[in-house]
């Protein structure tokens, strides 16, 4: 977890990216014909089962979401974890004041799984219980192996340790870590002064199996190495070097892949920006890269792993793994970041905008990073992908820790839903780190993608290009599925503000935006058939089904989106409906006064991908019309049309009148014609009134009989 940074403070004004009006129109465009990029299920990972995190023992713990496809066992505690007897050390994460003295580095059996009777002769119980628990949830496991050099040795200590490993000559608190040399068969020694990683791998595989057969799929190469001197000064008191991290990582990755060739390796598990750039100012960090993309150390790490993999004959790094705790805030001088639980107006706006720093070249957040390092937009994922493409092509991207704060607030839910959409679009692994809040809106964000209807329905696994006309106000993500045909999913994240900023006003009220969605290049000439929608907003942290959006045409729909909301659309596609084209044929019929003609519609079925307008359902009034009085009718336009016309024919099919200026507005329209106007010479008799609705090359006609009596 991110705790330490090299930060130079300054003062910059904070301009809120907020709509100046109470509502806006946002256009979202989806390329439904694109081939799609794979969205990994591991995009939706977590470091914990998501709960309400009760702040007192009076409130029971409630599981809010436990359907993440990936869970990680990581963090500072794992750096000093001893797999042989499950001992670990808190490092600087837990300190206490005892008789006026602050003590840290607590050694204990804290990581031993609850509900299991503790005994120090149960090797790897912490890891085994974690993996088996995930298997029961049908989730993959990401575990952490140790490479800082030393781990805890005394699980029964329950004490604060103030002795570094070099001074611990009796091995009272610390055991050395060796990557190789340990026995790979037989019962592990649980009180040894050396802990072997190759033995741990052999033992784990003997109990739970390998990747794909019940074992862990992913392995982190320790945790935040640049911070070892800060988080674990007893274990690693000296500054971490670049060569140390890459060298140890190469060796440990070789041990893991030798034991389990299907295992996926993640490294360097960097804590944040200062580690990306120079490994926390490591003295041996290279500066000679022509293209460092602003992340010189990561380029070095990738190149080292690439060279070692070539020598080994197989990959030693599958994912470049980082932690991302945004430094976005309201002013560079503000020591509080959005990762706190501050839900004030300014911090909430900054939080909802912050995911844009993952990709958006038009967005510059307010942070020490943009002020003193990038001097502009961070564009984190494209920056990292460029480094990968140059120094170790084919390597994936992972964020095994990240968060945006305020999981109990709508701003945290909007940011979380936006981040999940971005990670999915870029094919990244991502595991959220719990922020200790109620997490109600975080659970809503995960449900939006993984279980929006409560029946297990989820966002598709192939991302399609989607754009927003205003990324300041909203983002959009689209997908289809390799296993479910005839559906498209669209997630719309609205971060519009409910009030304009003025004098630090506390926001209240509501704003509703009009969203217009267009799906271009729908495969197979299909059209939108139906839409289900699910939403969370500022007043609902549980997904609900709002009023259905309006399907405006074959590939377009509109909806009203509350400001600060997330909406998932499940769009069902269908074939265009065959439309009858009415062609009048005229049959003479004897009457007492002579011969007149009746019109019999002949239905010609024409199937087209462009929807033919529905029959307008008009009724003439009055009918008969007497003298030179007005003739009127109402007609319905149920989908967009180019033109509406009315024509009048005699029984001999001679056209005597045409008006092509009728209203084409959606809904019910009224038309009135003065039968006595100068250019309309109508005698007694029967006439045919034809109403035409045209869309492109397609038209619908309604033919009505009219009797005129003078």
Notes on the structure:
With 710 residues, the chain is α/β, with parallel strands linked by helices. The protein contains 11 helices and 40 strands. An 8-stranded parallel β-sheet has the order 3-20-19-18-17-16-11-6. Strands 2-21-23-24-30-26-27 form a 7-stranded antiparallel β-sheet, with helices on one face. Helix 4 packs parallel to helix 6. It is elongated.
List the helices and strands and how they pair.
Layout: E1 25-31, E2 37-38, E3 45-46, E4 50-51, E5 63-65, E6 70-72, E7 88-89, E8 96-98, E9 101-103, E10 106-108, H1 125-136, E11 140-145, E12 150-152, E13 159-160, E14 174-178, E15 194-196, H2 197-208, E16 218-221, H3 228-231, H4 242-259, E17 264-270, H5 273-278, H6 296-312, E18 319-324, H7 345-353, H8 368-372, H9 380-391, E19 396-402, H10 410-425, E20 429-432, H11 440-450, E21 462-464, E22 466-468, E23 474-480, E24 487-494, E25 512-520, E26 527-537, E27 540-544, E28 550-553, E29 556-562, E30 565-574, E31 579-591, E32 594-606, E33 619-621, E34 625-626, E35 630-637, E36 643-650, E37 655-662, E38 667-674, E39 685-695, E40 698-709
Parallel strand pairs: 1-25, 3-20, 6-11, 11-16, 14-15, 16-17, 17-18, 18-19, 19-20, 34-40
Antiparallel strand pairs: 1-22, 2-21, 4-5, 7-10, 8-9, 10-13, 12-14, 21-23, 23-24, 24-30, 25-29, 26-27, 26-30, 28-29, 31-32, 33-35, 35-38, 36-37, 36-39, 39-40
Helix pairs in contact: 2-4, 4-6, 6-9, 7-10, 10-11
């Amino acid at each position: 977890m991110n705790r330490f940074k090299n930060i130079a403070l300054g003062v910059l004004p904070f301009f809120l990216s907020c709509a100046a009006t109470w509502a806006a129109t946002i256009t979202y465009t989806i390329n439904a014909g694109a081939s799609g990029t794979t969205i990994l299920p591991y995009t939706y990972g977590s470091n914990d089962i998501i709960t309400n995190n009760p702040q007192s023992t009076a409130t029971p713990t409630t599981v809010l979401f436990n359907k993440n496809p990936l869970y990680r066992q990581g963090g500072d505690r794992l750096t000093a974890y001893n797999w042989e007897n499950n001992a670990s050390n808190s490092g600087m994460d837990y300190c206490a004041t005892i008789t006026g003295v602050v003590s840290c580095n607590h050694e204990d059996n804290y990581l031993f799984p609850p509900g299991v009777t503790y005994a120090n002769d149960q090797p790897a119980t912490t890891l085994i219980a974690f993996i088996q628990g995930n298997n029961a949830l049908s989730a993959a496991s990401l575990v952490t192996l140790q490479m800082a050099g030393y781990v805890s040795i005394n699980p029964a200590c329950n004490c604060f340790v103030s002795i570094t490993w070099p001074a611990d000559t009796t091995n009272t608190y610390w055991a050395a870590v060796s990557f190789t040399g340990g026995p790979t068969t037989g019962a592990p020694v649980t009180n040894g002064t050396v802990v072997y990683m190759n033995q741990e791998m052999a033992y784990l595989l003997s109990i739970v199996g390998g990747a794909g057969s019940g074992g862990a799929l992913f392995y982190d190469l320790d945790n935040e190495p640049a911070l070892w001197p800060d988080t674990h000064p007893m274990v690693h008191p000296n500054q971490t070097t670049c060569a140390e991290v890459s060298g140890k990582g190469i060796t440990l990755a070789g041990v893991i892949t030798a034991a389990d060739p299907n295992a996926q390796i993640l490294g360097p598990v960097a804590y944040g920006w200062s580690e990306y750039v120079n490994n926390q100012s490591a003295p041996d960090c290279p500066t000679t890269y022509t293209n460092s993309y602003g992340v010189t150390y990561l380029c070095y790490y990738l190149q080292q792993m690439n060279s070692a993999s070539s020598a080994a004959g197989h990959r030693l790094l599958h994912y470049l793994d980082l932690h991302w705790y945004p430094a976005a805030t309201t002013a560079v001088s503000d020591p509080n970041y959005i990762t706190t639980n501050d839900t004030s107006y300014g911090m909430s706006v900054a939080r909802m905008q912050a995911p844009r720093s993952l990709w958006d070249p038009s967005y510059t957040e307010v942070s020490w990073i943009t002020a003193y390092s990038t001097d502009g937009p961070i564009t984190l994922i494209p920056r990292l992908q460029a480094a990968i493409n140059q120094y170790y092509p084919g390597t994936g991207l992972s964020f095994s820790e990240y968060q945006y704060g305020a999981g109990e607030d709508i701003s945290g839910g909007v940011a979380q839903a936006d981040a999940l959409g971005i990670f999915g679009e870029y094919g990244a692994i991502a595991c959220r780190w719990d922020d200790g809040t109620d997490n109600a809106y975080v659970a809503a964000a995960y449900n939006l993608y993984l279980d929006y209807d409560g029946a297990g329905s989820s966002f598709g696994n192939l991302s399609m290009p989607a754009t927003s006309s205003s990324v300041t106000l909203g983002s959009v993500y689209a997908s289809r599925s390799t296993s479910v045909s005839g559906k498209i999913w669209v997630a719309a994240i609205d971060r519009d503000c409910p009030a304009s900023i003025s004098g630090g006003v506390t926001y209240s009220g509501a704003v509703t935006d009009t969203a217009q969605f267009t799906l271009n290049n729908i495969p197979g000439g299909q059209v939108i058939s139906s839409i289900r929608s699910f939403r969370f907003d500022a007043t609902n942290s549980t997904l609900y089904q709002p009023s259905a959006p309006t399907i405006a045409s074959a590939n377009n729909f509109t909806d009203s989106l509350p400001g600060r909301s997330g909406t998932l659309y499940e769009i069902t596609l269908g074939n265009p409906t065959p439309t009858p084209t009415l062609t009048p044929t005229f049959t003479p019929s004897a009457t007492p006064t002579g011969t007149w003609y009746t019109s019999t519609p002949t239905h010609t079925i024409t199937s087209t991908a462009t929807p033919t307008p529905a029959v307008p359902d008009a009724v003439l009034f009055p009918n008969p019309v007497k003298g030179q009085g007005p003739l009127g009718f109402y007609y319905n336009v149920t989908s967009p049309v180019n033109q509406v016309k009315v024509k009048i024919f005699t029984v001999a099919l001679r056209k005597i009148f045409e008006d092509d200026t009728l209203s084409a507005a959606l809904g019910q329209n009224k038309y009135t014609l003065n039968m006595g106007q100068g250019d309309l010479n109508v005698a007694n008799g029967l006439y045919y009134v034809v109403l035409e609705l045209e869309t492109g090359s397609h038209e619908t006609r309604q033919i009505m009989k009219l009797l005129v009596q003078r």
